[in-house]
Write a structure and sequence with these properties.
By secondary structure, this protein is α/β, with parallel strands linked by helices. Helix content is 45%, strand content 11%.
Length: 250
């Protein structure tokens, strides 16, 4: 017999997920009027591509951070990787990779993960010195990430510390897309009822489902490229070139 409480709980989760999408064009216009920092103001003034645009016509940039930990209030960015892309191409000639001096302690545990040493960050530039360049690379593009809370929250916290202003931007989250298609509504309900563990949607496991090659993890640039390739594979499998951007935004 089915557990009624579990069915009701799943129903509440599905209902909560149906949230009206944010009007990013209007939001960017408002933020452009209120922002004080020149490069951030220019970022907003460039606007955001219309949500109705076919994904095949959307300029994107895959982005990844390595950090000193997982809490943006106590930890900080230690490296940034990005690569411009489209539905059809990863533009490696436009890729950028920065190692920056973190504002917080570089723990040994994080060094083991990303391999960036104390000696490397000792001679690295401050995050403040690359803010303008980073925003320039992001402006006018839709940011592609795998697990959006990391990039959104860490960039927002870093800018608040350095320029006393945060940042907002739309993203395509390949982890959210993979969650949608590796755990359909029926599978999610059945797994919940049967108390089964869902399949992994970590970046390497998600890539493996599309037969993409394995890349060593936790290099920000490599992970950005891996994320961009994953989105292309997801698009080829689950979407058409005419799918609207709005269907993919998080």
């Amino acid at each position: 017999m089915f557990n009624l409480a579990k069915i009701q709980r799943v129903g509440k989760i599905l209902k909560a997920s149906r949230v009206k999408p944010l009007d990013w064009s209007r939001r960017f216009a408002l933020l452009a009027n209120t922002s004080k920092y020149p490069a951030l103001k220019n970022f907003y003034q460039q606007g955001v591509i219309a949500a109705s645009t076919p994904i095949s016509a959307v300029p994107m940039v895959a982005l990844d951070f390595e950090t000193t930990g997982l809490d943006p209030d106590r930890d900080s960015i230690v490296s940034i990787g990005l690569v411009p892309m489209t539905f059809h191409r990863i533009r490696c000639n436009g890729a950028r990779h920065w190692i920056v001096k973190p504002e917080t302690r570089l723990h040994t545990s994080s060094v083991v993960v990303h391999g960036i040493t104390h000696a490397e960050v000792a001679g690295a530039p401050d995050f403040s010195s690359i803010i303008d360049k980073l925003l320039e690379h992001l402006q006018g593009k839709i940011v592609v990430v795998h697990h959006s809370p990391i990039e959104r929250r860490f960039l927002d916290a870093a800018l608040k510390r350095h320029i006393q202003e945060g940042i907002e931007f739309p993203v395509i989250d390949t982890m959210a897309i993979e969650a949608q298609f590796s755990r359909t509504i029926r599978k999610t309900l059945w797994a919940s009822l049967m108390a089964r563990q869902p399949s992994s949607i970590r970046l390497p496991d998600s890539r493996a489902r599309y037969h993409l090659p394995y890349y060593r993890q936790h290099n920000a640039l490599t992970d950005a490229v891996a994320c961009g390739e994953l989105l292309q594979a997801q698009c080829a499998t689950h979407f058409s070139p005419e799918t609207s951007l709005s269907a993919m935004l998080s």
